[in-house]
Structure formats: structure tokens, C-alpha cells
Amino acid sequence: MSFDDRFGLLVDAELATRENRRVTRLLKSAKLKAPGAVPEDIDFSARRGIDKRQVMDLLTCQWIERGQHVVITGPTGTGKTWLGCALGREAARKGLSVSYQRMPRLMEDMEVAYSDGSLPALRTKLGKARLLILDDWGVAPITARGRQHLLEVIDDRVPGGSVLITSQLPVKTWHDYLGEPTVADAILDRLLHNKHTIELKGDSMRKHAVR
Questions:
Q1: CA distances from 196 to 55, 69, 130, 149, 153 (A)
Q2: Domain range enclosing 8
Q3: What is the pLDDT of residues 90-127, one digit of tens each?
Q4: Which of 38, 55, 105, 141 has the most crowded CB, counting CB atoms within 10 A?
Q5: Do residues 89 and 185 share a domain?
Q6: Backbone angles phi, psi at 68, to 5 degrees
């Protein structure tokens, strides 16, 4: 092997090492709830109602590059969080920053931040992520101030910042969930006009896991 060939291999190895470190750093920062969720393990069986072509297209992460959104709905236990985290992991693999947030906890964090004056810093942090994952949308009531905080977080991401939402609630019920019509209209207009929807079906995967 010539010197140039050996040198080229060393350069390639160094670049690969740097890329691996970057992905590791992005995944650590993302704080995914299901860190073991990987695209290679996605269950495309018919009972789950997943369109394989759609998911494979989403795994290219072009939707993030285009500033689009993803909504994953379905009954409890059908794997919404897992699938959302798998998409988030793939985004990190492709060098995109990700922030996972469970909605009830995020609402609490924003209320605390509002009280102690750190809300602008929290919003800035959320706004920097190329992909914001909002898990468990609608599982807990939302206050008037919480609605306003949520609107500001979503508005900070327009244009260009993508949001992935998982929810047990069908999209058609989200307006009622959010409550106040004007704020609800503003939030949903920003989220739903440019989205991809996945509706998971079937029994709880947790039931299958314990058999």
C-alpha cells in the first residue's frame, strides 16, 4: 500500500471518529425517552397500520430540512413514543440537533421558568433544536398561560424548525383540547398545514411484550 493510500485511510478514520463523536453528542443532548429505539427495529407488520413507504421517506429527514412536521397518533401502548424516538435518532445520525420533551413536564418547566425569569433562556434552548419532539400531547390539562407559552415555543420555530408530536388524541380533537379558540387557531395553523400524519393501530405493544 502506498503512502498516499495509507494517509487516505488515516484521514477517513479520523473523519469517521469525529462524526461518531458528533452523533454521540447530539444523542446525549436529545435526551430521547427511548434511547434504544432505532429505525432498523421498526415493526412494519400490517396490524400496526404503518405505511412503510411513508416512514422510509421520513427517515431521509428531508421533512426536517423543509421545516415540516410529523404527527403520530394512536391508542396507548401502540408505540408512538418509540417511533418518534426512532425518527429522532435518525435525525441525530444525520447531524441534526434534536430535543425530546414530554408535554406535561415541559408545561411544568415553562411555568417554573416563567416564575423565576428564565423562560426566555428556555425558549431559546428549545428554538435551537432542528427537531423538537413533543411527546404525550394532550395527556394532561393545559392552562391559559400554558397555551400562551406553547404558542410562543411553536412560533419561535416558524419558519424552518420542525416539530414531531405524539398523542393519544385524534387531531380533530386538538382544538377542543387547547381551549381558547384564538390561541388554538394560532397553534394549530402553524403545526397542521405542513405535516405528515402517522396513525398507529393495534393492541398495546406492552401486552405483547409480557407474553
A1: 10, 6, 17, 24, 20
A2: 1-29
A3: 999 999 999 999 999 999 999 999 999 999 999 999 99
A4: 55
A5: yes
A6: -95, 175
Nearest to 61 by CA among 32, 20, 25, 95: 95
φ, ψ (nearest 5 deg) of residue 2: -75, 165
Does one domain contain both 43 and 73? yes
The edge-to-edge listing of strands for the beta sheet with 98-102 is 98-102, 131-137, 162-167, 69-73, 195-199
Taking alpha carbons only, the member of 200, 209, 210 closest to residue 81 is 200
Decide: 59 and 53 in contact? Cβ < 8 Å. no
Neighbours of 197 (CB within 10 A): 14
Helix axes 80-93, 3-30, angle to 10 degrees: 140
The answer to whether the CB of 44 falls within 8 A of the CB of 55 is: yes
* Cα–Cα distance for residue pair 45/52, rounded to 1 Å: 9
Same domain, 89 and 1: no
Confidence class of residue 6 from pLDDT cuts 50, 70 and 90?
low
Asked whether residue 1 falls in the same domain as residue 21, the answer is yes
Q: How many domains does the chain have?
A: 2
